[in-house]
Queue: 4 jobs
Job 1
Amino acid sequence: MTRQAKHIFKLDPAKEIDDSTLKKIVNSGTDLILVSGTDNVTEKNVYGLLSRIREFDVAAALEISHPDAAVPGFDHYFVPTVINTEDVNFTHGMLVEALMEYHDFIDYESISLLPYIIMNQECKAFKHANCHAVCDEEFIAMIHMLDKLYKMDYIYIEYSGAFGDRELVKEAYEAAEHARIVYGGGIVSKETAKEMDGVSDIMVVGNIIYDDAERALETII
Ligand code: 1GP
C-alpha cells in the first residue's frame, strides 16, 4: 500500500488542526496520512487524531517516535532510524530496547523501518538526534549502503523546514535501485512540488498544512 504512495501529508498529533482543515487535507487525494511528531506525542493525542482521520476514507500510518505512543488501528507503522547520527540510540538503540519489551505483540508485516538522512542542519530533528553534517560523497555512499546492502524499502531524505538540494536528491533517486526515495522539506506550493516530483518517489508535505492549508492542497499534482 505505502510503497505505491506518491504524496503524503504528515500530521503532527501535538499540533491543533480544525475540523474543516482536517477534512480538506484527508479528502485531498493524498495517498497517505502519516501521523508523526517529535515533541509532546502522547497516546492520547495520537488516538484523538486517528479517530478524527478515521471518519474519512484515507490510508493512515503512524511513525512511532516512542513505544508509549504506539496506538493500534493504523493501516501501517513506520519505525524511524537515523543514519547520520552520532548516537547509536537513534539508529537502533531505542529500537532494540522497545523490541525487548514488545516483540511478542508486534505484527512485523505491518511495520517498516524508515531510515532518515537528515540534511537540514537547522531543523529540530537534526539537533535532537545528534546528527552530523553529511557531504555529498558520504550522502551517496549512504544511499548505496541503504539501498544495496541493507536493501531498505524506503530512504527518507529529510530537509524538514527547508527546500533541499534538488541535484543531490536527483543523484540519490538515480542511484537507488530498490529503495523508494522519500523526500521531505519545504514543499509549500505547486511549483516546489513539481520540482521534487521528478527526482523522488514519494513526497512528504508537513508544515505548510498548518501555515496555509490551501497552499498545502496545491502540492498534490
Ligand atoms: C517533515 O519531511 C517533513 O518531517 C516535511 O517537511 O514540514 O518542511 O514540509 P516540511
Note: The mean pLDDT is 95.
Job 2
Amino acid sequence: MKKVLFIASEAVPFIKTGGLADVVGSLPKYFDKEEFDVRVMIPKYSCIKQELKDQMQYVSHFYLNFDNQDRYVGIMTMEFAGVTFYFIDNEEFFTGPKPYGDFLWDIQKFCFFDKAALSALPVIGFQPDIVHCHDWQTGLIPVHLKDKFREGEFFWSMRSVMTIHNLKFQGVWDMKTIQAYSGLADYYFAPDKLEAYGDGNMLKGGLVYADKITTVSDSYAEEIKMPFYGEGMDGLMRARSGNLAGIVNGIDYNEFDPEHDPNIPYNYNAVTFRKEKVKNKTALQQELGLDVDPKKFMIGIVSRLTDQKGLDLIQYVMDEMCSSDDLQLVVLGTGDEKYENMFRHFAWKYGGRVSANIYYSEPMSHKIYAACDAFLMPSLFEPCGLSQLISLRYGTVPIVRETGGLRDTVEPYNEYESKGTGFSFANYNAHEMLGMIRYAKHIYYDKKREWNKIIDRGMARDYSWASSARKYEDLYRWM
Ligand code: ADP
Ligand code: GLC
C-alpha cells in the first residue's frame, strides 16, 4: 500500500476560494483504494462551517517552536466521503472570516503551517511515502523535507510532489522575513534556491526541492517554460522540465451532475436536455429579474473577478455585445472592485439583460451552469480551469480563449466537419472574442440542430477524475 498525504491550504467541503479546493477535496476519492491510501491535511480555519467543525475529532497536540515562540499545534481529524482529513489547529493563525487576504500575515501563517504539518506526522501515526504539496502555501514543505526533518528516520525516505495550480501566486516577501519565519539557514537564500529577484519565495523552494513537479494541464506545463506565462520562473521550469508533467484536472461527477443536482429546479441528462434544460433558464430569468424569454441566448460567467480571467476584454466590448437585445449575460463572482463595479454598472445600464451577482454561492453557481446556453471564459492565462468542465457536464457550451487547460479541454467547433465541443479564439483581443460570441450566437439561433450536437458531444466527454487519477497513480508508483 502506497501512502500519500495531500497538504494544501483549502479543500472542499471545508473551505474554498477557488478551483484548488475542488481538486484537493475531490481527487483523493478517486484513487484505487487497494493500492493507495491518500489522505488530506489542511488548516483548521475558524471560518469552516460549524456543522463540519462539530464532526472533527481531536487527535493530539504539541508545541512547536516558531519564530522564537512555542506555539500550539492541535490536530483534528474527520472522515469525509471515504477520505481521512487532518486539520492543523492554531487559533492565532487560522482565525478570521476568510482563509487569506493579508500578504505578510499569509506568509507567516503558511510558514507556520508547513512546519506544523510535517511535525504532526509522527504524532498522528501516518507515515506517507509521498507528501503531495499544492501551490505556494505549501512550498516550504519539500525544502524542510530535505533539511532538518531528513535527519530523523521517520522522514528519511519521504518523497515530495509539488503541484502548481497557479504560478502567479508564489508567496514572496523580503528574504529576512521569510528566513526568520521558515527557520531555514542562510544557505537556502541564494538565487538557485529560495531567493528570486532579491526576495524570498516560498513556491520557488518547492519547485527547486520537490522530487516531482506537476501542473494541472499539458498546455500550462509547456507555457510556464516561456517568459509570458512563466511569472519569472520560466528558467527554473525549463531546468526542471525532466521532472515536470502536466496532468489535467477532472471534476467530481457526483457533485456536478445535472441529472441529480438538488440545486437546480429541473434535472436533465444527455438525452432530456433538449426539453428540460431551457426550463432552468426561464426559472433563473425569473429569479434574477431578467426578461423572461426561453429564446434569449444566455451567457454565464462564474468566476473570481481578477485580471487572470480576461474580464478587461469583456469590459471593452460589453456595449457592442449588448447592442442587440437577443443576448443575456449572468455573472456570479467576487474579486477586484473594478470588475465588481463594472458588472454592477452594466446590470444597471442593461436592466433585464444583464444580471450581476457579486457574491459567492455554490447553489447559485449550479443554477447558472444549468440555465445558460453558453459559458464565457476568455482567460489571459488558465492553468486548467474547472468552470469550462462543469459547463460541458451541464450541456452549456464554453466560449474560451485558447490558453492552458482551456485549450486542452474545449475542442473548437468546426462547422464543416461537425466537430467540437465549444468555441474558442486564439489572441487576447476583445474583438476576436466578440467575433466568436457572435458566431456562437448565430449557430444557436440559426442552426439549432448543430448547436444541440455541440452539446451532445460536450456532454459525452469524460472529465471525471477517472483518467487523471490514474495518471497521478502512475506518477506515485515511479517515485
Ligand atoms: P480558479 O481556481 O482560477 O478560480 P477554476 O475554474 O479552476 O478557477 O475554479 C473555480 C471554481 O470556483 C469553480 O468551481 C467555480 O464554479 C467556482 N466559483 C468561482 N466563483 C464563484 C462564486 N462567486 N460562487 C460560487 N462558485 C464560484
Ligand atoms: C487555479 C487555476 C485554475 C485551476 C485551479 C485548480 O486556481 O487558476 O486554472 O483549475 O487552480 O487546479
Note: The longest helix spans residues 103-124.
Job 3
Amino acid sequence: MTAPKIIGPALPNMPWQERPAGNNDVVWRHAENPIIDWNPTKDIARVFNSAVVPYENGFIGVLRAEPRTGVPQLHLARSKDGLSWDIEEKPIVWIDEEGNPYPPNYAYDPRLVKVEDTYYIIWCTDFGGAALGLGMTKDFKTFTRLENPFIPFNRNGVLFPRKLNGKYQLLSRPSDSGHTPFGDIFISESPDLVHWGKHRRVMARGGSAWWQSVKIGGGPIPIETTEGWLLFYHGVSGTCNGFVYSMGAALLDLDNPAKVLYRTKPYLLTPETPYETSGFVPNVVFPCATLHDAETGRIAIYYGAADTYVSVAYTQLDELIAYLKENSELVPGDAIAYKG
Ligand code: BMA
C-alpha cells in the first residue's frame, strides 16, 4: 500500500514543530501558543477563528477581529513565518460588483481559499439574520462582495479549493437565529457561485460520541489527498455550563464529497490548556484554516481558542489517516449522499 499523500504544492516555509517527546497524540499544540494574544493592536481586543493562506514569500491572513465595541469584522494580516502577524488596524473595505461601498454589519468566522486565480472569502454575515457572505479578491487590495449564497440562517461556509465536474462545492451548516442547538454539515454545488443547488447532507451530528452530539460544522478548507478530501471540523457537546467545542476530522470521497468515508469517533483536540478553557467564551477550539506541505505531509491547523486567541496545532498526514481509519464511526445518515 502506498503512503497517503497531500495533492498540491510543497510549502517548506510553513510553521512546524515536531511532536514533543512523551506526547502520543495524533494532533499536538504549538509550544508557544497562543500566537495572537488579547489586545493585539490599539483598537482590537480579540482575534480568533481566523484564516490564512500562503501568499508571495510568506502568508496572508483574514482575521476575525473584535474591536472594543464587540462587533466582529474581518481584518487583513501579513506574516513571514505564519506565527508572528502584522495586523491591519482597519477592517477590510468591501465593494459590491458595481463598485459601490458594501460594508457588512458584522463579519465573523472567515474561511479563505484560492480557486484558480482568485481568492475567495466566506464568512458569517448579517442578511436579515446570520447567513453566509461571499467575496473575492485577486490582490488583497480590492475586495468585492458577490451574491450571498444562501438565505438565513446559515454559518460555517467552506468552499473547496477546486471545482468538481465544473462546479464549485460549498459546505455549510444551516442554523437558527441564536446559538443553534442543532446542526449537520451539508454540501451544495454551483456553476457560477450565484446559483446553488443539488444540496446533500454530508455528515450528521450525533452517533455514540458525545463531543459531537449537539452540532458539527466544517472547519478549514478541505485538503485534497490521495485518500480523499481531508476535512477538519468542529463538534459541540452540551454541558451544564454551556457548549464545548472540540475538533475532529473526516475523509470525504474525492469524486463525490457528499459521501463521508471515515470520521473520527474520538475528538482530535478538545479544550485542555488555559488559553482554550478560559477566555471570552471558555472551552472552545474552533479550527478555520490549515497550511500544509505536500512534500512532507505536514499540516498546521489554525484554530480559535476560547473566542479570544489564535492558536496552532500540528499533525502528520499519514499518521492522521491511519488514526482516522482505525477510530472511525459513521453516524446514521452519513455516507449515503442523503437527500431526505
Ligand atoms: C459559534 C460561533 C463561533 C464561536 C462559537 C463559540 O456559534 O459564533 O464564532 O467561536 O460559537 O462561541
Note: The two ends are 37 Å apart (CA to CA).
Job 4
Amino acid sequence: MAQQVRAVVARSKGAPVSLETIVVPDPGPGEALVKIEACGVCHTDLHYREGGISDDFPFLLGHEAAGTVEAVGEGVTDVAVGDFVVLNWRAVCGQCRACLRGRPWYCFDTHNAKQKMTLTDGTELSPALGIGAFAEKTLVAAGQCTKVDPAASAAAVGLLGCGVMAGIGAAINTGNVGRGDTVAVIGCGGVGDAAIVGSKLAGASKVIAVDIDDRKLATAEKLGATHTVNSRSADAVEAVRELTGGFGADVVIEAVGRPETYRQAFYARDLAGTVVLVGVPTPEMQLELPLLDVFGRGGALKSSWYGDCLPSRDFPMLVDLYLQGRLDLDAFVTETIALDEVEKAFERMHHGDVLRSVVVF
Ligand code: APR
Ligand code: ZN
Ligand code: ZN
C-alpha cells in the first residue's frame, strides 16, 4: 500500500519550498523504502530550487541522508528491513564498461528507483539526485542504501551521502594523499573542509587552507588545517609555495569550481604534483593555461566525481573511523533543524553562516 508522508517540495523555479503531503509507493523490484532519520541541507538542493539543475519541477529536495530500511522490493538482497543505511546518489550498475573494468566508482549508468513518488493529486515528483530525503520516507534503488553501524549519529553520517564524502574522497581517493604529503585546499566550505579532514586522516604533513573569508579559515583550522591563507589579502600561489619550502604542495584540491581558483591550484602545486578539481564549475566557464606549463610541470590534473567514492567500500569504513573518534563528522553539523525550517537553512547557507544544517526527524 502506498503511504502518505510529509516532505519538502520545490514547486516552481525560485519560489520558497513548501511542506507537502506526498505519496510514496511500496518498493518494487530492486527498490527500498527508507524511513529518514536525518538529512543535511546542501547547496545542490538550493540549485534545484533555483532551476539551475533542470526544469523538472516539482522537485523533492534533500539528498544527504541516513535512515532505516522499512521495506524492500523483490530481489533485494544487499539490504534488509531494519538496516541502518546512509543513502548515496550513485548506485552502481555492475555492468557498464567502467564497472566491468573493476572501476565501479566511475560507473556510467548509476540508477535510482523506477517508480515515482507523487503529490496527492498524482503530479510526479523529481527527487533531487534521485533521493528526495527531506521526507519522512523516501523510495530509492536498493543500491542507493549502504548499511553502516547503527551506533552512529544519523545527522553526522548522513552527510557522507554527498558533500563530506566528495571532500574526503577528493583527498584520499582522487588525490591519493598519503603520509608526509603536503596538501593545499582552495575553498573551505563543507567540501573543502572535508578535504582537509581527509588529508589529515591520510597522514598529510601540512594542510594549507586557502579561502577569501576569515570565518571559513577559522573553521578550517579547527578541523585540522596546519596553515591558513586569506587569498584576498595574499597571493595564494606565493603563499602556498612559501609554506612548502618554495616548491608548492604535493596535492592541491580545488573546492570552489572557478577558473581563477583552478589556475591557483595548478601553479600552487609542486612539479609532478596533483591537482584535484572537486568544485563544480558552471557551463560558461573557460580555462586558459599555457600548454607548455601543462606539459612542463608534469604530474596529474584530475577531477573528482563524488570523491570517486564507492559507497559500499567507503561509507562503512568512514563510519567506523567516526565511531572510533578518528573522524569528526559531528563537526560538520552546525545545527539540527525541523523539516519546516529548510527555507531558513537555505538563507543561512547563502550567507555562509553554516557548514551544514541538518534536518532531524
Ligand atoms: N578563492 C578562495 N575561496 C573561495 C573563492 C575564491 N576565489 N570563492 C569562494 N571561495 C570559498 C568560499 O568562501 C567558501 O568558503 O569557497 C568556499 C565554497 O564553499 P561553499 O559555498 O560552502 O560550497 P561547498 O559546499 O563547500 O562546495 C564547494 O564543490 O560540490 C561543489 O558545487 C559545489 O562548487 C561547489 C564546491
Ligand atoms: Zn556501471
Ligand atoms: Zn549535496
Note: The chain has a mean pLDDT of 97.
